[in-house]
Write a structure and sequence with these properties.
Layout: E1 4-7, E2 15-19, H1 31-34, H2 39-50, E3 60-62, H3 64-69, E4 74-79, H4 90-110, H5 116-120, H6 125-128, E5 132-137, H7 140-152, E6 155-160, H8 166-173, E7 178-181, H9 186-200, E8 203-204, H10 215-234, E9 241-245, H11 250-263, E10 269-275, H12 280-287, H13 311-320, E11 323-327, H14 329-340, H15 356-365, H16 368-374, E12 381-386, H17 393-400, H18 404-409
Parallel strand pairs: 4-12, 5-6, 5-8, 6-7, 9-10, 9-12, 10-11
Antiparallel strand pairs: 1-2, 2-11, 3-4
């Protein structure tokens, strides 16, 4: 039976927890899933990305004070705020997919295999300059694709929807991309990017997948697994629970996929966390099938404002995701402030789309029924992924009441 718990309806602390009726804790990693994410694919992504200038593993920060507050034994936070200077884990996915795309297209044009090293080193600048990549974005993915295009020498057009901030638009343009604003929500901008790519012979580099478009999102997700591998390698013991924010689900599926391949039937409990205004994973688990949500999807957690789950992510999280929590924007703001001014832990500057996983843990930590449903107790070892820093610096200061620089220096 599908377990559902709703608490605090109409309040800032409201949450809904839905258990996934299709989850199979002991399920093996299938051939179909291995065609999406694999150890060989991770090895190639890790070798390539670690060779880029400026690469360094991001920190995995222990938060013992917050662990005690939430009634768990350990809590670790993977802080992606410093990733390649882009402020987000998205640098791992979009840019890697651009590199893979260019290698394939240049190989076809030149009649010989072009390596990823040659792409990174701009070995064929004239040929690369004939290629245009594009995507839709809420901000961070577009910045990554634009950064990759600039680094590897191709052209880039980025589509943003109505509610993406001007600061995020400007940040994308700083990497040389042309940015076009569309009417509607994120899913509308995805469709517009595909339409214009088809019309102009461009290549869509999207972090979501849909019928007829699967290859490039696989590369995006495989890049994301580098983040998961860094985190897992830094742990002294396997986590019992991982709380993961979901937009289309690519990041969550990448982390879950590596957890399954690494720990098998002993994998952690995988808990997804949706904004309540764009809770497509919650509705999909309720229905037992991918289910879109509509409307303006207007959540402060802009990077998670997605109404349709990724088909590839569903293939993974259909059985390897255990539950989903829908949360308010207020819960995200509270988590940002808690990280910025902790009582005892290291201060962390986390953007509004970075904290849904942590906010999910905080929301359920005081509810006995939710804790029981998730098997969360005083022995639990929890990992969350802080997927961005202050990618909109002005908004961060408005929400937290201090700049990220002040937070990191401990003067906030």
């Amino acid at each position: 039976m599908n377990t559902s718990i709703t608490r605090g309806a109409g309040t800032d602390a409201a949450f809904t927890l839905v258990m996934n009726p299709l989850a199979e804790r002991g399920a093996a990693w299938s051939d179909a899933q291995n065609a999406i994410l694999s150890d060989d694919g991770l090895a190639l992504a890790r070798e390539t990305i670690s060779g880029w200038p400026g690469y360094a593993p991001t920190p995995l920060v222990a938060l013992p004070g917050l662990a005690a507050q939430t009634g768990v034994a350990q809590l670790h936070y993977k802080d992606e705020g410093g990733r390649f200077g882009l402020g987000s884990f998205k640098a791992l996915g979009g840019a890697y997919a651009v590199a893979r795309l260019l290698a394939k297209q240049l190989s076809g044009a030149l009649g010989r295999e072009v390596t990823l090293d040659e792409v990174t080193n701009k070995a064929f600048p004239e040929e690369a300059a004939q290629i245009t990549v594009c995507c839709a974005t809420d901000g961070n993915h577009g910045r990554s694709v634009a950064w990759g295009a600039q680094n590897f020498g191709c052209n880039c057009v980025i589509f943003i929807h109505a509610t993406v901030s001007e600061a995020r638009k400007t940040a994308i343009e700083a990497y040389g991309a042309q940015v076009r604003r569309c009417e509607g929500n994120y899913d509308d901008s995805v469709r517009e990017a595909q339409r214009m790519a088809t019309e102009n012979g461009w290549f869509v580099v999207s972090d979501t997948s849909y019928e007829g478009y699967m290859e490039i999102p696989r590369d995006v997700m495989q890049g994301y697994e580098v983040m998961a591998a860094e985190a897992f390698d830094a742990l002294n013991a396997a986590p019992t629970h991982i709380f993961l924010q979901t937009g289309v689900g690519g990041m969550a599926a990448a982390v879950a996929g590596l957890a399954v391949r690494r720990w098998g039937a002993a994998r952690p409990v995988i808990v997804l966390c949706d904004p309540d205004q764009s809770a497509c994973w919650l509705e999909s688990y309720r229905a037992g099938a991918p289910t879109a949500v509509t409307g303006d999807l207007d959540t402060l957690m802009a990077g998670l404002a997605c109404g349709e789950v990724s088909a590839l992510a569903w293939e993974v999280l259909r059985v390897h995701g255990d539950a989903v929590i829908a949360l308010t924007d207020a819960a995200a703001i509270s988590a940002m402030r808690l990280l910025a001014r902790p009582e005892t832990d290291t201060p962390i500057a986390a953007g509004e789309s970075a904290v849904a996983g942590l906010a999910g843990l905080i929301a359920v930590s005081g509810d006995e029924d939710a804790r029981a449903a998730l098997g969360l107790d005083g022995t639990s070892r929890v990992v969350v992924f802080g997927t961005e820093g202050d990618t909109d610096a002005a908004l961060y200061k408005e929400l937290v009441g201090a700049t990220a620089e002040a937070v990191r220096s401990g003067t906030a």
